[in-house]
Amino acid sequence: MLSRESSNLRILIVDDHELTRLSLQLVFSIQENIHVVGLASNGQEAIEMVKCYQPDVIVLDLQMPIMDGWVASNYIKDISPNTQILAYSSVDEVSFGKNKTQHKFDQICKKDIPTMELITLVRHLGQRVRYFSFSEEKFNSAY
Fold this sequence. Notes:
Elements: H1 4-7, E1 9-14, H2 18-29, E2 34-40, H3 43-53, E3 57-60, H4 69-79, E4 84-89, H5 93-98, E5 107-110, H6 115-142
């Protein structure tokens, strides 16, 4: 049986708007089995936090100062390939098409997504992490 701590989904929230970060933190913190491990205001901070906290899922804004989410996603996947990245932005889907080769997002959603849908999406991404981790453990133990 898993301990309560190991069953928690670890989330990192990255957005340059403080109100957005804090609102998302509040929304996720009151959910069962979700733990917000950190808040970052740009991609560079996010990369450092990924190294320290190894989140399962990152809610990553795309347009930020210093380092945007497009660039940060590549670095994050290089250091933590199983971490699921949810691109969370107000950018139109048309803009995503132009940048398809410049990111490593696992899922994309607009900021106007209903709260419960966002929570469901993050939980779904968290299940992927658990699946990938279990598959790797099973493969490694076989050899």
